[in-house]
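4.2 Preliminary Data

To establish feasibility before requesting continued support, the project team ran the inverse folding procedure on a target of 101 residues. The structure was first converted into the token representation described in Section 3, and no sequence information of any kind was made available to the design step. The complete token record follows.
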């Protein structure tokens, strides 16, 4: 988990640095090109859209009702478990804040 947060932090800093460079470049020649951040966003959105379309296409090709039912059952089971553990965590947190033992 720690490396995942470090990776996210690195990517955010990289985007901010690219935006700062894009702002400097935009001030130098505003009329010639779009800022780097805008280009990166457009590129990421196009990658995301193509990946999403491919995943939806694959899902439609391999759609099985039994698999769909299993996925729905797993989802309902996992959300029920999350609700239970969230309730336990909330109770523990409230008891710690109130000072009850």
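Position-by-position output of the design step:
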């Amino acid at each position: 988990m720690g490396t995942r947060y470090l990776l996210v932090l690195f990517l955010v800093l990289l985007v901010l640095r690219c935006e700062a460079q894009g702002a400097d470049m935009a001030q130098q020649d505003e009329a010639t090109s779009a800022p780097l951040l805008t280009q990166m966003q457009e590129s990421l959105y196009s990658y995301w859209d193509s990946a999403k379309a491919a995943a939806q296409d694959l899902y439609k090709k391999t759609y099985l009702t039994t698999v769909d039912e299993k996925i729905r059952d797993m989802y309902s089971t996992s959300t029920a478990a999350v609700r239970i553990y969230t309730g336990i965590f909330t109770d523990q947190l409230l008891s710690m804040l109130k000072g009850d033992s």
